[in-house]
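lol ok so funny story. i was supposed to be doing the assay writeup but got distracted and ended up predicting the structure for this chain instead. priorities right. anyway since i did it might as well share w the group, maybe its usefull for someone
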Amino acid sequence: MLGSFFKKVKKSLTRTREVFGGLVDLVRGRGKVDKQFLTELEKRLYLADVGGAAVATIVDRVKQSFIDKEITGEVEEFVKKQLREMLSAPTQGVQFAGSGPTVIMIAGVNGSGKTTSIAKLANNLKLQGKKVCVAACDTFRAAAVEQLTIWSERIGVEIVKNQQGSDPAAVAHDACERVKAREFDVLIVDTAGRLHTQTHLMRELEKIHRIVQKQIPGAPHEVLLVLDATTGQNAIAQAEEFSKSVKCTGIILTKLDGTAKGGVIFGIKSKLGLPVKYIGVGEGLDDLDIFNPDEYVAALFEKT
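and the output, tada:
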């Protein structure tokens, strides 16, 4: 049975579903696979911004399964099954530490929706009854600390900060000390919204990672990379570069409500093996949802 996530994501994926409509029209009611169909399937998956590696995997599976007589009904159900399996099992969101504070590092480029995603995540965790603290370690970008301060006050969570231009690692250190001393449940560590080509800022990200690791055993327990869905396949390139500096544990995919490129979610999983843990589907504080792959695929195949 489809739940509230399906209803919400169906509405937010309007533009992506328009693009996927061509794929749905192609596979719906079809029980036969031939060369012409496979060519068209490949074309429409590319148009849906699914990405090269994922497209090749799906087309090969459809072709081989028809040869092996695994496809006994409509092709649509088989394609949906492949897409669901590509996204893996449903996630429960943040994996909390067994004891002590859970440290969540947030990375991503400026403009990806990183600051608002931190606010939404902090609000989400607070509503779960968690005592949350935010570390404003993006001291490079003008107004970054101020923006996070405004969000923290609005939500009602504590913030550790310093002046713009100060050492981000020092802020991270102080935040770790505070959450240990005051028994916080969660520390969310913001990092500079760097471009993945900015080597000095990538090194700063690595330094913050080392600091929290030294201060709190097992930290960071999550390294979530914020990606803007509207950038399509470029989001995958960003994720690849960030993963070279720190071991990312999952993705927050933002701005799905404003793009036709929601198919990039399959490319991210296929190319990087990283789970999409949360998706952003609006501007409100409650518009960050734990990702459900079954309902996401079902929403894509709903006709507009």
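The mean pLDDT is 89. Residues 199-215 form the longest helix (17 residues).
back to the writeup now i swear
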